[in-house]
Amino acid sequence: KTLFDLLNRCVTPKGSRMLKSWIQEPAMDTTDIQRRHVMVEYFLKEKEARKALREMLSQTTDLERTMARFEKNQYKTF
Fold first, then answer.
1. What is the CA radius of gyration of the chain?
2. How many Cβ atoms sit within 10 Å of the Cβ of residue 74?
3. Dihedral (C-alpha) 24, 38, 52, 56: value to the nearest 10 degrees?
4. Distance between CA atoms of 36 and 22, rounded to whole angstroms?
5. Residue 8: which region, alpha, beta or left (left: phi > 0; alpha: psi -120 to 50)?
6. Residues with Cβ within 8 Å of residue 36, at least 6 apart in sequence
7. For residue range 24-69, what is the model confidence (pLDDT) as tens digits?
8. Whole-structure pTM over 0.70, yes or no?
9. What contacts 49, CB < 8 A, 6 or more positions away?
């Protein structure tokens, strides 16, 4: 297993892509690192907020991929 496989509990493809990019290119700016730590700490402590957010995110579509497909198909018509 990879580090990504062990850490990935994302409910959306976008979240998985973000996690992968964070592993491949870790933050070097201390402000970014601290901001991420604060967010992680919050969601570890606030189980109901984490559950609600995961539920909302699981119902969203992958807009980034949808837009990429749209753009790809858009150029085929010209």
1. 16
2. 9
3. -40
4. 11
5. beta
6. 22, 27
7. 999 999 999 999 999 999 999 999 999 999 999 999 888 888 888 8
8. yes
9. 42, 43
